[in-house]
Design a protein that fits this description.
alpha+beta; 2 domains; 4 strands; about 5% strand; globular; two-stranded antiparallel sheet
């Protein structure tokens, strides 16, 4: 059995050096796992090392195709709540609101 890195991987290089079996390698468009080398860290670590360091939620799947670090696992915020917070705190939205607020207070002469 082996883990799988999917297309949401951003090639950050975090997982490659922590793999005890050296199964992860650089490829395009994203890193890949050599299934013949991957041991799923059995006998080396109690958790998947690649998924424990991966900054992208859902980028690494277990042998059953289930995300090891699913959306919300890194932030503790469920996906639906995260989207709502992102939309309300998005810097673009905040800047636009601020610009709109000052333009109505100080109209151009």
């Amino acid at each position: 059995m082996a883990v799988k890195i999917i297309e949401s991987c951003v090639n950050c290089f975090a997982c490659e050096p922590v793999c005890p079996s050296k199964a992860i390698y650089e490829a395009k468009p994203h890193f890949l796992v050599d299934p013949k080398k991957c041991t799923e860290c059995e006998g080396d670590f109690p958790v998947y090392q690649c998924a424990s360091i991966c900054p992208i939620e859902g980028a690494i799947l277990d042998s059953l195709g289930i995300a090891i670090n699913p959306p919300g696992s890194l932030t503790g915020i469920p996906r639906k709540e995260w989207r709502k917070r992102w939309l309300s705190y998005n810097p673009t939205n905040r800047t636009s609101r601020w610009l709109l607020s000052i333009s109505t207070k100080n109209p151009a002469a």
